[in-house]
UniProtKB/TrEMBL annotation:
<dbReference type="InterPro" id="IPR022966">
    <property type="entry name" value="RNase_II/R_CS"/>
</dbReference>
<dbReference type="GO" id="GO:0003723">
    <property type="term" value="F:RNA binding"/>
</dbReference>
<feature type="region of interest" description="Disordered">
    <location>
        <begin position="160"/>
        <end position="181"/>
    </location>
</feature>
<dbReference type="InterPro" id="IPR004476">
    <property type="entry name" value="RNase_II/RNase_R"/>
</dbReference>
<dbReference type="GO" id="GO:0006402">
    <property type="term" value="P:mRNA catabolic process"/>
</dbReference>
<feature type="domain" description="S1 motif">
    <location>
        <begin position="628"/>
        <end position="709"/>
    </location>
</feature>
<dbReference type="InterPro" id="IPR001900">
    <property type="entry name" value="RNase_II/R"/>
</dbReference>
<dbReference type="InterPro" id="IPR011805">
    <property type="entry name" value="RNase_R"/>
</dbReference>
<dbReference type="InterPro" id="IPR003029">
    <property type="entry name" value="S1_domain"/>
</dbReference>
<keyword id="KW-0378">Hydrolase</keyword>
<comment type="function">
    <text>3'-5' exoribonuclease that releases 5'-nucleoside monophosphates and is involved in maturation of structured RNAs.</text>
</comment>
<keyword id="KW-0963">Cytoplasm</keyword>
<dbReference type="Pfam" id="PF00773">
    <property type="entry name" value="RNB"/>
</dbReference>
<keyword id="KW-0694">RNA-binding</keyword>
<dbReference type="Pfam" id="PF00575">
    <property type="entry name" value="S1"/>
</dbReference>
<keyword id="KW-0540">Nuclease</keyword>
<feature type="region of interest" description="Disordered">
    <location>
        <begin position="716"/>
        <end position="751"/>
    </location>
</feature>
Length: 751
């Protein structure tokens, strides 16, 4: 470049290239050589003096950014009536950013001096730097109400949707929000809690038909008793929190740690970075850093925040909303590792050798600054040769080393042989109105697997450290299958012409051999489903029984303390073990570890059931417009009342009631998992390919009813109409004889 860059061009380069911000990098980028470097230094100094840049060691950066969720103070309106605010916790050394507040029609009136929690969006080309949307006013936490609105002469009432809740709410005439009679509404308490009469509420959201998709997750939350309303004292405690400083922490702000999450993630609790190990004793090895939000600094043992987090146990995730374990002030702000914002963390530095084995690790309590908030797809695209503007500058120093370290971990994983089930995850895509637009299967990118392997390694390091230091902790336990379930899996495999060896200590590699043998055959999905059903459910325990599925001797959850209480306990244990402060594991925590483990294992199952019920209802709503259509699928379950079919396109499970299979008697054999027709000999079993007709889809219950059209490509034979035919008892005997005959043939083949 023949001339010096303008200040705007320099600022744009630093913004686009956060890892190439030394004076040398900037000079190289603009072709500046010789004496012209003195002029570049002068321009950089001017930018620093003007507050556009701040110098840290030998690099220049944009001043600290505001996090997407921030505490703001309303400063008033301008001559045009626009409402402005200032950040309460600006840490940058440059000019304090200007924030325009964008109110919604349903927002309460805000005046000068009010403090709010707001969601920020950075803007360019305007006189203000951010636009803010109100989350809530600080110091207020109105009780939320979900129910059906009934119109009355005095305004209306809200009837609870839960059978066990008999309390109604009165809605004054001016607080109905335009709700219609019979609509599902979300409201908040208005006015003080009176001793006489019905409590008053103001409707804030109309959800429409109680059976509509947008109401599904809210109903599931209430039906399963998941707390979604934070007590006042919890909110007040969170609102008082201030960002952690550098005192007592290692300064990690110059490390190019990045977060990699789903594209719609709002909180970021883990960041990572990898580089070649410069230790000559570890030739070909890598150093992997995993930094996790230091939630324990804010949520201390015995506090109101701690009691509420333990009560919830975990965050619950639904297609249209999240019920967080911690209030927004923490989960979306102080504990979220936002790009360009200093954040407290507990980090682990792990050394792996050229074979991918961990050869050393150490934990630190630090202060970090994420170099970039990335999503899985853009990272994968960058690795595949299509980097966008954000990933391009990060390739050499950040993204490529992450994948190189991951390649070594894959070697170690292949030797360890954890259970390798192929179970695609469904993703329900909703419109803004809550209508299901599509149901897809999530892609499993190498970017997903990379983060997964890094987190597993960090969790192992946490467990090993605490075991070595004899510290109490909560292990993540996954025990091996019971002999009965293992035998059932072995029989399923044999009936499919496959082998699961007997008479040896079961290891995950034996199951992987079975899964590999089934891959690409007609029995692929059947063997995957049967293997999953043979597994026990993972749980938390202060006693270590190992993790069978991951093929690990000691495993603890450390990497998600924003959304799992178990991880918060492990963080406190690490703080105590390293004597980092007084916010570690208290004697009270240690005394009730057994009860805590049982409780959070139950809350985890509660969330899983609510999430599954919600997904089922959304799938039923999606399919309700396709009643009468035919779908392909596989039999995923057999019971004496019918068979379950998992449909290929959506992964939805539907039931073929036994009464629709014909009028003949069907014999159910629990041992072989089959239904057999007494007259036609029609035999239905796990894994068979079917074509089904959708006859019913109920969004209210999530139930899906099907009719069998063809089995393994053949039209289904129908038994005779029941009437003068053989008595049911005689047909049952005949069916039993046929089933026994089939079983004897199978046994002869096995020999």
């Amino acid at each position: 470049m023949s001339k010096l860059p303008t200040k705007d061009e320099i600022l744009q380069w630093i913004s686009d290239n956060p890892t190439l911000t030394s004076k040398r990098d900037i000079a190289k980028a603009f072709g500046i050589k010789g004496a012209a470097r003195i002029d570049l230094k002068r321009i950089l100094k001017e930018l620093e003096d003007e507050g556009h840049l701040q110098k840290r060691k030998k690099t220049y950066r944009d001043p600290d950014k505001l996090p997407p969720v921030s505490v703001l103070q309303i400063t008033g309106t301008d001559a045009d009536g626009d409402l402005y605010a200032r950040p309460m916790e600006w840490q940058g050394e440059g000019v304090e950013p200007i924030i325009l507040v964008i109110p919604r029609a349903s927002d309460p009136a805000l005046g000068e001096g009010d403090r709010i929690l707001g969601r920020l969006t950075e803007v360019k080309g305007e006189k203000h730097h951010y636009e803010a949307r109100l989350i809530r006013r600080i110091g207020t936490n109105p009780h939320k109400v979900l129910g059906v609105f009934k119109k009355t002469a005095e305004g209306g009432r809200i009837l609870p949707i839960d059978k066990g809740d008999g309390k109604e709410w009165q809605v004054p005439p001016g607080a109905t929000g335009g709700a219609k009679d019979g609509e599902l509404v979300e409201a908040e308490q208005s006015g003080p809690k009176g001793r006489m009469g019905l409590p008053k509420a103001r409707i804030v959201t109309r959800l429409g038909d109680p059976t509509a998709p947008k109401a599904v997750s809210l109903i599931a939350i209430h039906q399963h008793g998941i707390p979604d309303d934070f007590p006042d004292e919890v909110i007040a405690e969170a609102d008082k929190m201030k960002p952690a400083g550098l005192s007592g922490r290692e300064d990690m702000r110059d490390m190019p740690l990045v977060t990699i999450d789903p594209v719609d993630a709002r909180d970021h609790d883990d960041a990572c970075w990898a580089h070649e190990d410069d230790d000559p004793k570890n030739d070909g090895g890598y150093v992997i850093w995993v930094a996790i939000a230091d939630v324990a600094h804010y949520v201390t043992s015995g506090s109101a925040l701690d009691r509420e987090a333990r009560k919830r146990g975990n965050s619950s995730y639904f297609p249209d909303r999240v019920v967080p374990m911690l209030p927004d002030r923490l989960s979306g702000d102080l504990c979220s590792l936002h790009e360009g914002v200093p954040r407290a963390c507990i980090a682990v530095r792990m050394q792996i050798d050229a074979k991918g084995d961990k050869v050393g690790h150490r934990f630190v309590r630090g202060l970090m600054r994420s170099a970039a908030s990335l999503n899985y797809q853009e990272v994968q695209d960058a690795r595949d040769g299509k980097p966008n503007d954000k990933c391009g500058p990060l390739m050499e120093d950040v993204i490529d080393p992450l994948y190189e370290a991951y390649a070594l971990l894959v070697k170690a994983r292949n030797r360890r042989q954890p259970l390798d089930l192929d179970l695609p995850e469904r993703k329900v895509v909703l419109s803004d109105e809550g209508k299901v637009l599509s149901v897809n299967f999530r892609d499993r990118l190498d970017a997903h697997k990379l983060i997964e392997e890094f987190m597993i390694l960090a969790n192992v390091a946490a467990a090993e450290t605490l075991v070595t230091r004899r510290s109490p902790l909560l292990f993540r336990v996954h025990e091996e299958p019971s002999p009965e379930k293992l035998e059932a899996l072995r029989e399923t495999a044999q009936a499919s012409g496959l082998v699961l060896a007997k008479g040896q200590v079961l290891q995950t590699r034996h199951l992987n051999q079975l899964l590999a043998a089934a891959e690409g055959t007609d029995y692929d999905e059947l063997i995957n489903m049967s293997t999953l059903r043979a597994m026990t459910q993972a749980y938390y325990s202060p006693a270590n029984f190992g993790h069978f599925g991951l093929a690990l001797q000691a495993y603890a959850h450390f990497t998600s303390p924003i959304r799992r209480y178990s991880d918060l306990i492990v963080h406190r244990a690490l703080i105590s073990a390293h004597q980092w402060g007084k916010d570690g594991l208290s004697p009270g925590d240690a005394e009730i570890l057994e009860q805590t483990a049982t409780h959070i294992s139950e809350t985890e199952r509660r969330s899983m059931m609510a999430e599954r019920d919600t997904t089922d209802r959304y799938l039923a709503a999606f399919l309700s417009e396709r009643v009468g259509n035919e779908f392909s699928g596989r039999i995923s379950g057999v019971a004496k009342f019918g068979v379950f079919v998992r449909m290929d396109d959506t992964g939805a499970d539907g039931l073929i009631p036994i009464r629709t299979l014909g009028s003949e008697y069907f014999h159910f054999d629990a041992e072989s998992g089959t239904l057999m027709g007494a007259d036609t000999g029609l035999t239905l079993s796990l894994g068979q390919r079917v074509t089904v007709k959708l006859t019913e889809a109920s969004p209210v219950t999530g139930g899906i009813a099907l009719e069998l059209v063809s089995l393994e490509g053949e039209t289904v034979p129908r038994g005779p109409v029941r009437g003068r035919g053989k008595p049911a008892k005689r047909r049952a005997v005949k069916a039993k004889r046929k089933a026994d005959k089939v079983k004897r043939k199978v046994e002869r083949r096995r020999r």
